[in-house]
Amino acid sequence: EVRIGYSEMEGEGETDDVWDAEAVTRAWNDDLRQPASEPQSETLQLRLRCPRQSSRVQLLTRLLTASEQPLDEEEEEEEGPRGAALKITLQFRCLLPPLTSGSHHLGGLHLSSSPLQPFLYTTTGIHGDHEGPRTYLPCFDTASVHHRSSHEYTVQVTAPQDLGMRMFGCGEESLDCTTLHPVTERPGCTRHDALVQRCFASQSSQLLATHVRRSTIWDPIPIRSFGFAVGPFLSLPDPELSDVCQLYLAPLYQRRAIHATSPPPLTKSQRSEVTSLHKSLTGGSSGIPRRALQLTAAILDLPALRTRTYTQIWIPGAHQGGIGSGSHTSGWETNAWLGGATLDTRLLPPLNRRLPFYGGGRRLQLTQARNAIWGW
User: Is the full-model pTM beyond 0.90?
Assistant: First the structure.
């Protein structure tokens, strides 16, 4: 579903045939700061303030105001009449067809509907010939500095509370919230609420969890930098730095605790398994993405990283995204997005085992570093 809207300031600042630039500037500034999508819930009024948002809004406001300034007769003869400046907003929704249990590849959206491993993630590579799409969503295919579009990224996921489904994705900054509610209660969005009631009509007594995450992007980025993943993920911060974390599919006995207010305690064997899993993740990834990001920032002479956090999502059998149109190759190499990446868990060392550098360790390190760099 695609919805297109636009804003224009025709008539603003015109009083007694006198054009008021300040009134037009204020009108455009207020309009550009409004969120593009409808509010998802009262507790998630995500008015994100990225470091680059104010400068971007000021730039757009100045350009839009200047384009509406009336010309005198001599200037109009030379340049021609000017039209009203417009802000065009494109909203789109991706609707998935009915699917059976198993793995499915839907042109950049890869999902598993298995009860044991329910997840969905995006890739920006292609399948088939080189004429295939390079992204799962419509957007400008450019990294030019003249690309002046901003992106507001909102994903809302509703599932039974016991599944622990959550969404993580790209963005310079993001906010999220989770609401627990029965099937008959409104989770905050009219369209989403109607879809939830149709899907869970036969489970009216079940408690659902609605997770909403919204992020903003104010920098010019290529289309490959859009991405997200949905699943019962647990977060594991990097031992060296808290702004880098690893996400992994939670074992069945931990999924109920993701959205629970008082999670049940784990048994001794379960705690031992979780400890071994954490050692496998941190032993094969600690410090690698951060060093790659710092190196890239130093080479590009940037004062700070592009995103507030960096997230690596580990999914069993994750399909790589490719690095260019037609470059679909075998392996688990590149599936990066702005602020993170999706990687295959088969790259990690087995539980309670070490991964020699010559026996897979080199590929594991280079893959993480390559994803961190490509995410820019």
Answer: no
